[in-house]
Amino acid sequence: DIQMTQSPSTLSASVGDRVTITCRASQSVNNWLAWYHQKPGKAPKLLIYKASSLQSGVPSRFSGSGSGTEFTLTISTLQPDDFAIYYCQQYNTYWYTFGQGTKLEIK
Amino acid sequence: QVQLQESGPGLAKPSETLSLTCTVAGASTNSNYWSWIRQTPGKGLEWIGSIYYPGSTYYNPSLKSRVTISLDTSTNQFSLKLTSVTAADTALYYCAGGHSSYFDHWGQGILVTVSS
To answer: Which of A67, A79, A97, B10 is the most buried (most CB within 10 A)?
Structure first.
């Protein structure tokens, strides 16, 4: 299986900050990568697919980049609603795998 | 608006079969991909398998020998069967759907505990 490793595991930031989360794959996943966030007691919500395509209805402050084995999710200006756990997911092979998550918390 | 809802027993006995159903509203199960994913504090999010009409299935190789996912377009539902369950199968189970192999829409999740 392809291992997905996110960094950092925890990120402390303030409203208005620009933040970046990194996801690394153990082998190339081309650009078949999605990002989600999850709030307590809720299901994950799709933010980005195909590495950089913004899901309909998701605010433009979210952006994704990368290809191959290294990807980033950037939130340009943090809003109170953005504090959550963020996950990447690869779908390059028929063994889809997720990163372990990055908890974005209020500083 | 696409909505998914998991249903089934919240408790399963060791060695028995876990059976869950996902009811889809706002989309048709005779198109798109439909999937099961589970979440535990220890292993995080784990993809179980997916099905695409009329019945192509893709399973997590680590679970493949125990998993069956099926589609019922007449009721707009899809189902999960996981055999020979153990305590390690205790998890929050989500059904999900989408246009591709990522997950646009998720159910709210159902907690299944494996215990005698």
So the answer is: A97
Each residue's pLDDT tens digit, A39-74: 999 999 999 999 999 999 999 999 999 999 999 999
Helix (H, G, I), strand (E, B) or coil at B116: coil
Mode of pairing for the β-strands spanning B18-25 and B77-82: antiparallel
**A100 contacts B101? CB cut-off 8 A:** no
Which among A46, A95, A97 is the nearest to B102, CB-wise?
A46
Contacts of B100 in chain A (CB under 8 A): 49, 91
Sheet holding B77-82, edge to edge: B3-7, B18-25, B77-82, B67-72
DSSP state of B42: T
